[in-house]
Design goal:
It is elongated and about 85 Å long. The chain is mainly alpha-helical and 126 residues long. The chain has helices spanning 14-27, 31-41, 47-84, 90-119.
Length: 126
């Protein structure tokens, strides 16, 4: 008696079929073994995980926008320094450093959430 008694038929285009055949050839396994291994190792994100990743992506986009503003300020300071020989005052440097550290800390927090989400260690923290 067969252990695997269910048959699954799938359709592929030429490129997908060639990719499958290349994977089979590279692995030295049967086509069945390659497909079953791929399915067994595959992590499919839930709808909630996808939404959380979208939210985190938007947070990164916002931080990136703020960092662009900070780097624009730094470039303006550098340009002023080179053209006028003026050195930015301590309060300006402190302000820029404080903002950059804030964005860096927030980015690190988001990266940690993404890593934990991908590894399956958390269930959708909101």
């Amino acid at each position: 008696m067969r252990k695997r008694n269910h048959t699954v038929t799938i359709r592929m285009n030429k490129a997908e079929y060639n990719l499958l055949q290349n994977k089979v050839k590279e692995s030295g396994r049967t086509q069945q073994e390659v497909v079953i291994k791929a399915i067994a190792d595959l992590k499919i994100a839930s709808a909630e995980e996808v939404e959380e990743l979208k939210r985190l992506n938007q947070m990164f986009a916002d931080i990136l926008c703020q960092l662009r503003g900070a780097t624009t300020n730094i470039n303006q300071i550098a340009r002023k320094l080179h053209t006028d020989g003026e050195i930015p005052n301590d309060s300006m440097l402190y302000f820029l450093n404080k903002n950059i550290l804030k964005y860096r800390k927030e980015s690190e927090r988001i990266w940690q959430l993404i890593r934990r989400l991908i590894s399956g260690q958390i269930h959708m923290e909101q």
